[in-house]
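User: I'm new to structure prediction. If I give you an amino acid sequence, what do you actually give back? Let's try with this one:
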Amino acid sequence: MDIAVCRAEDLDVLERCMPSHSVDGHHAARFARQEAGDSSYLVPWLEGRPVGHAEVRWTGCEAPEVRAVHPGCPEINGLFVWPASLRSQGIGASLIRTAERLAQERGIESMGLGVGDDNPRAAALYARLGYRPTVGYVDRWAYLDAEGVRQERADSCLFLVKALR
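Assistant: Good question. You get back a string of structure tokens that encode the predicted 3D arrangement of the chain. For your 165 residues, that looks like this:
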């Protein structure tokens, strides 16, 4: 498996393999933030196919509850492994380690990420990798359902932080 920063030519492949169903077309939006210098959009490739993604938001988490406690703390956002049959095989951990390495190369001393209250499996992975709970928040997001109708979600989450040095 190789993990690479997303390139413009990857967007069509990402959308075909992992359709975003997002209001903002999340692959394109993440790539645009990367192009603006606000993030790094990481894609793991296995046998020539993308098998997930994670965005390192250098500008930090958007939730005001998190910004108040951790201003300027970069966030690993949108960590995803697909298909589900590839989960628990080290891809997510490799994405996190790659994000941490990029942060260390920038001289950043801590990294954060959020986990939904309903995702104990991910929370266990993050704890094993050294992330510690700090503040609860509500993650608000929207998607397009199967009929193309906008749906809004508000998920209870916990923001975790790890010291990188």
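You can read the tokens as a compact description of the fold. Here is one thing that stands out. The chain has one domain: 2-163.
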